[in-house]
# Entry
Amino acid sequence: MSHHELYLDALLGRMVIAGNNRPVGRLEEFHAEQRGDYFHIVGFAIGSAGLMERLNVSIRALFGKSRGGRIARWDQIDISDPARPRLTCSVEDLADIGP
Amino acid sequence: MHLVRDLLDKAVIDRNGREMGRADRVVLEVGRGSPPRVAAIEVGASALGQRLGPGWGRWAAALLHGFGVDHGQPLRIHVSQILGVTDTIAVDLAFGQTPAANVECKLRRIIRVLPGADR
Amino acid sequence: MSAIVDLVLGVVTSIGGFVEVGSISTSAQSGAEYGFQLLWAIAIAAAMLALLTEMSGRLSVMSKRALAAAVRERFGIHFQVVPLAAELVLDLLLLTAELGGAGIAVKLLTGIGFQWTIVPLAVMVWAILWFSSFAVVEHGIGLLGLVTLSFVLAAWRLGPDAGDLARSFVPSLPAHDGVRYAFLAISIVGATVSPYLLNFYSSGTIEEEMKREDLWVNTATTYGGNMFGALVAMGVLVTSAMVLQPLHIQVDSYEQAALMFVPAFGRWAVTLFALSLGIGCIGAALEISLNTGYLLAQVFGWSWSANKRRDENARFSTAFTVILIAATGIAVLGFDPLRLTMISVALTVVVMPVMVLPFLVLMNDRKFVKDRTNTPIGNAILAGLTLVGALFALIVIPLEVFGG
# Structure
């Protein structure tokens, strides 16, 4: 199996595009599980504003409220072009991050 | 584990508990039909510079090369060398094996000329 | 017993270390131009500093990281570049001003021009950092700084009216030059709430290996030390108000400010003022220099500690040496230390939101502070004061600079 390399920061904050070319949100976190020696990415958290989410300066966050968002499984997103990650499913199939 | 929250930018500690730097970049391997996986972390000024922008990366690499402390390449730590990720990233390396140690060694030689450097 | 000793030492050294070139210059000018009217600004600034330093100590104890390290891990390097660059520039300006202030103090005692003493003073600061542990830097100079209680003694000897003093803790409009009044109020905040103090205090908490069960010492020290320390700054303002304002003396130099001690201390006036100014400035110079080492080491993941061998923390040791050299190089060019001080304290308030707001986010992140998060009211007060202060600064500073 051939692999190519890319940097996590090349994906962080990128706008995820749905099949109809509409923006879904920005990649803000990558959920991983350890399997053997490697950490495999099992989910991509898609939020509203990328860097702003990480900066988290919203009033809600200062007072302890979370922001919501969606999670895409690794097979629901195509990151072969890191500058333009695309969903391979419909937006409705994505799980919610929850409160 | 959450890669941004728990891995990226976290302090890297060697097998002796000494600070080695920070996980300035995380390298992923992406293949067809399998989940992307973390292959390595990169530590060093040139990695950090590249992350800020290609120009900064080249400048950092040239600066380090100019000081003769490395070949301008960051230290890449394969994921198999990561012993654990808690508040810090513990790795199965010794600080002395890294380019950052070259910087410390050069500065240490200068500092040891001064009295009190070993206090 | 040890905790009590730590508390007493912490409060005493906070008092001794409270005033430096920024607070002396802003309080002296405020008193000379507006009498007691800006005492409320010192009170608010001290309260903000107490809140922020308590938070920085709590963050370090709970997360086992200093503030700069926590910002890097929580927000990433792209964000951190902004406050890091801002703090390095401000610290360089302020360190230059502190060295200049110390030079002026030596000039008051010896008559030697301040530019000639900058280099030996900087070498002395470096030598203290090089050969001393953290405790000596933090507590030794703080204890010497108790000489600044001269300002409190002078104010008491002059016998100000208690009613006038009490009324001055309520903000009021000035009778003249509102822009200048607002500028001085902002400058008082900028002089008191210096960004370097937050990371320095948080690094010091780690150096001293403070534990969770000692958090009450952190709270008592920060509130007690800063509120009592504010009395010294108020002493500067009151003394200046009672001596310089009636004579219409505007404080355009530290030599003029020294006149405020004459009625209270007679022939000891210049000596006491010079010692207070000099020790306050040297103490601040030590903290700012050491903090530069802490800041860069924590952001980039170098080994750091003032309690470890200098050669084993070579990059950390080099960092605090380099900033001292840079500040010395600027200071010997002869920039007016008072003017440099006023520029740096005013700029501090403008950049304060960039430093304080992420700090507030950290203080509400359980990953860092576990169950010791801020209260919503505490968040609201600090966020509000910081944003209002910055907004005022953005409006008032250009008016002050271009208006006169």
